[in-house]
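Sanity check

After download, print the first record. It should look like this:
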Amino acid sequence: MKTPKLGVAALVAATMVLAGCGTTSGDTKADGGSGDQASMKLCMYTHGDGGGFWSVAKKGAEKAAADLGVTLDYQESNNDAAKQAQLIEAGVTGGCEGIAVSAPNPDAIKGAMAKAKEAGIPLVTMNSGSSVFKDLGAFTHVGQDEFIAGQEAGNKFKEMGVKKVLCPIQEANNIGLQQRCDGAKDTFGNVENLQLSGGLADIAKSQAEIQAKLEADPSIDAVFALNADIATGAAMPAAEAVGRDLQIGTVDLSADAVQAIKDGKMAFAIDQQQFAQGYMSIVLLYLNKTNGHELGGGQPIYTGPGFVTKDNAAQVQELAAAGTR
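Expected structure tokens:
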């Protein structure tokens, strides 16, 4: 998939030059007129749950807003698509000059995004929505392609020589999670999905569901968890309970997941670098408002997939302790 990729370092450097040109006293408005630059209000409304992943994405957005001297409205819907749509609509009437959203359930927010577009508000999708951002009126997407991430996970499992991979899905109606499993199946082949009814809200139930599947199918020798908390809180205990030495990989990071990789208890984690997703989404909206840029060339701007393995886990752990990985 030959998709153009934007150099993140170059983009940040250019943005900081624009932000810093004669604005240290705050007497130049972000749109080029007179006034306080902080009067620019940029908004980010995600399906986040306030957990380890989204707290880092939020920090990225907050850091970008602080670096650029703009006001940020960041709110999460805790996987409630109807609530997320309401947040977007409230942002349209509440003075948002640019809106970034995650889009795991695009149909549920399509109407709200259309109202933002009609109001002339620039839009960016982030984290989820790489294949539908244009349909939602966004000029680019910041994140990873979930299918490609799954493909790379499948390649990792193939290198390990495993025979069958279980892919537990912790959220219903999240197209990105399904795409991860589909990608793994594309490159690995023998992948079986498992819809978890417990999800993240009931980790103990999710563990029980994975354990029951492992007990019912002894041919499963690997688990591709789609969330770090599912990996460490459900998949690892389930494997231990059935007494099997399984290869476990996950998407996204947590302190427990990185420690498990360091200790050799988990094989890998796919890092989509969510701090950058939060940071770059605000940067892109800022550049659009201040300089008329629509970066990305009509394509997604990828932040992953990167891999955390035993080789680099110590370095990532240090960064995670600082709240940026």
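If your output differs, re-run the checksum step. Summary of this record's structure: The longest strand covers residues 41-46.
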